[in-house]
Amino acid sequence: MKPFNNFKRFLFILIQCTWALGPTIMGFLYFLKNIKCPHRWYRGAIETQWNSKYMGLSLGLFIFTPTNEQDYYSKCKVHEYGHCFQAMLLGPFYLIVGIISTSWGMLPVFKKLREQKKIRYTACFVEGWASKWGELATGEEAVWD
């Protein structure tokens, strides 16, 4: 790895462990809860492939990706990595993104709305933002459905 890439990785981790410390601590707790799942480094983040077929999660330095077919998994990983940059930008205010994201993804009223109106998951601005930043940061395709 080139020295510049090592420096970017260092800054990524430093910001996640200072300004975004709140989300990173929560991510660490989820990491411990899923300690038996496979883990690896992904561009400075600690990725855990947890026991969820479709749901991803990003909390500071930690991303959690589904155990699904390769194409969806890869795109979800890029999307969750985009959330890492939201945490770096917003720090303790990333909680707002978490509330919006969780509500949009989990509340039955929004699930029903997305299904009936054929609205993409990333139509929610925090989700589209995460996919866009994930793609910009990695050069890979993110999930947009």
Q: What's the helix and strand layout?
A:
Blueprint: H1 3-16, H2 21-33, E1 39-42, E2 45-49, E3 57-59, E4 62-65, H3 70-90, H4 94-106, H5 108-117, H6 125-138
Helix pairs in contact: 3-6
Mean pLDDT: 93
Largest sheet: 4 strands, mixed
User: What is the number of helices?
Assistant: 6
> Could you estimate the helical fraction of the residues in percent?
55-70%
Q: Can you count the beta strands?
A: 4
Biggest sheet, spatial arrangement of strands: 1-2-4-3
Instruction: Return the structural class.
Output: alpha+beta
Q: Report the end-to-end length measured between terminal Cα atoms.
A: 33 Å
Strand content: 5-15%
Descriptive labels:
alpha+beta; 4-stranded mixed beta sheet; 145 residues; globular; 6 helices; 59% helix
